[in-house]
Amino acid sequence: YVLNCLFSSITSTGNGGALCCTSSYLLVESTSFFSCKTSGGYGGAIYFSNSGGQCVLHEVCGFDCCTTDSYYGHFVYSYVKNDISSKNYINYSSISRCVNNNYKHTLWLNSGKIFCPSVNLSNNKCKGEFVFCFPLSYSKTVTCR
User: Fold this and answer.
1) Quick check: helix, strand or coil at residue 121?
2) Which helix (H) or strand (E) covers residue 33, if one does?
3) Vertex 136 angle, CA 74 and 75, to 5°
4) Which of 5, 76, 80, 129 could form a disulfide with 46 if both were Cys (CB 3.0 to 4.6 A apart)?
């Protein structure tokens, strides 16, 4: 559980420029990520991967975060359990100026119930979709507004 934190100018050569989590659950609330980058992994700011887990980002601010190599998820890479009851949410958040024209996707959301209400994605540049949702076998579990 990460609450009310600021991650600024953090770099990594592995997954997650600022935050790398492989535990069962990740909840990030009221937290900002500024200029966080990874040069050798997924998720410029946040990396979550657990095929039995859940990930929720609530009231998160991201600015100038990216992967600088050929990896996905300039701001977040989230891979959760492939089950309709597994949350893969980004709620009431703003992600801007995540720029890398050579590599793909600002948000990479893989598996589970994908839900993105009230997300502001502005001034981002990438090769491919800004939001890449991959719900696998539950094709009706994606809601992005």
Assistant:
1) strand
2) strand 25-34
3) 10
4) 76
Share of the chain above pLDDT 90, in %: 50
Residue 136 is predicted with a pLDDT of 56
CB of 116 closer than 8 Å to CB of 85 = no
d(CA 135, CA 110): 6
Nearby residues of 95 by Cβ (< 8 Å), 6 or more positions away: 60, 61, 62, 63, 65, 75, 106, 107, 119, 120, 121, 124
Tally: H helices and E strands in the chain: 0, 19
The answer to whether 59 and 30 are in contact (CB under 8 A) is yes
Higher pLDDT, 60 or 107: 60
**What is the Cα–Cα distance from 56 to 119, expressed in whole angstroms?**
13
3-state secondary structure of 134: strand
Task: Tell me which residue of 111, 130, 110 sits closest to 121, measured CA to CA.
Answer: 130
H helices within the chain, ranges in order? none
Max distance between CA atoms of the chain, in angstroms, equals 37
Mean pLDDT of 52-72: 89
